Amino acid sequence: MTSIDQIARDDAPRRGRATSRRGREDVSLDSAGVWVVVPCYKVTGHILRVIEKTPAWVDGIVCVDDACPDGSGDFIEANARDPRVTVVRLEKNQGVGGATLAGYAEAVRRGGRILVKVDGDDQMDLGYMGQLVAPILLGEADYAKGNRFTSISHLRAMPSIRVFGNAALSFAAKLSTGYWNIFDPTNGYTAIDSTVAALVMERRVSRRFFFETDLLYHLGALRAVVRDVPIPARYADEVSNLRIGAIVGPFALKHLRNFAQRVLGQYFVRDFNAASLELVFGLFGVLFGLGYAAHYVVTRTPGQVASAGVVMAAALPIILGAQLLLQAMNFDVLNVPSRPIHPYLRTVQRLQREEPQA
Length: 358
Hints:
By secondary structure, the protein is α/β, with parallel strands linked by helices. The chain is 54% helix and 10% strand.
């Protein structure tokens, strides 16, 4: 079976020319088929404001009651006056990821083409939604996300602990997802093309607080194009359900798992290239040098001084191995997906609908 990344790579030049000729001229938010998905858990004090601020060009709003103890679904149905609102109730709490995926499924079922995920705590400025969906509407990206770190002025309202934590998580996410061109991976203000969302829903994406980062990992496996959009965050009286101390360890393990799976899949299963060789020989050189040095330290006689030859035998493989690993990282940085896959996926969908039935 032909892989999606290979199909997208082969088809991209034709799609790029088509987009440049007509995509930028015919875009319209009113006919874009944008649906908003709002996971709802203990947000009854803010959700009505989120619904009221949703732009008029949005076709529908899916509010997902994630087994909320405050009865978010009933509250929305009783108080929201916007006819675009649809409430989805989950019998068991599935976390922000599970609620978002359930909202995606409902929006796709109702004909949504671009799906925007917004938190229900009114932290996100919905006035930036047009900027968020534009890269997808123009055919330049499959997934767009907010980035709160593009301006110092955007960070003044952010608590210092969040600035530090997001910076650390961003570097870990670059390693584990392969998207070296993005920052602020935990930002929950996102937009995705529905055809790409359909593929993501078939994968085992984390349902809890690791959702946004794990989603990036799976998008990377699909070779989807991700774009950052500068959007400042707002903080007021909302209460976060996230406890930093409780997620540091699990997040680190999940990043390590995704990094190992990504490197293995990207450089040894789906492809084998110069970076694959650099990884193998680089890792071998570093481990050989460290092993040789450790063996000498353990077996030497007390007071014995290492000769220049022994030092070079240990240091040279480590130096060469480190250089090879840096070259492999440089290759990985330049290997970020750059050709969107959703135009191809939409073309396949259209051809399948037009195919005569036997």
